[in-house]
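Exam revision sheet. Question 4 asks you to relate a sequence to its structure. Input first:
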Amino acid sequence: MFRGTVRKVIPLVAFGIGFATFPKSLRKDHIDIRKLTNINQSVIEQIESTKEYQSLVNNPELRHYTSSKSFPQQHHNNYVNTGLLFGPDLMEIDPIVFINEKTGELTSFYHLGDKLISQDGQIHNGIISTILDEGLCSAGFPLLPSKKGVTASLSIDFKNQAPPQSTVVLHAKVKEAKGRKVVIGGYLETLPLKPNEKPLLIAESSCILVEPKWFKYFWWLQI
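Answer key, structure tokens:
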């Protein structure tokens, strides 16, 4: 019995120590955050001029933030939106997010540049999948006991391909929240920027988000 307990406890403790010390080893002086100064301000101004944005920003029930503010700064360079695929002709803005943390409803805005295309000249579906996974999970996190979780399953129904230089908007909503499991649905579409322009539905998605039992012991970590 003692050996069994030790076998379970030691890996858990080692994992906790690793996560606890990792952020400390990446001090600000080791981080290159200059990329975030390359944000395409004209795209942001276009988004802010839309009726959808104005409706969201004037809703007192929503929390408004940019994606990079939702996780520790030391991880920015390794994050898709603000590091690996951020820059001119890539993901050109720090995604703008609005969320109702009580109901699990989320809307977020992205801009996808020319260098994110696949061989057919359209935005790569891997980029779309990443946006959906991140966005749907972000909608579900606040409804988990420790506010953290992992993707248990993600299904995507691709409808149309997004053209390069697209400004897109993600709509996500929690369908079910029970204990350590949350089910979220959502869809991604282009954001109309011209009068009488209609959005193009890019993909619909469903996600199951779960919180592993051991997460409650590490609520204080910057995961």
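Marking note for examiners. Residues 2-218 form a domain with the Thiol Ester Dehydrase; Chain A fold (CATH 3.10.129.10).
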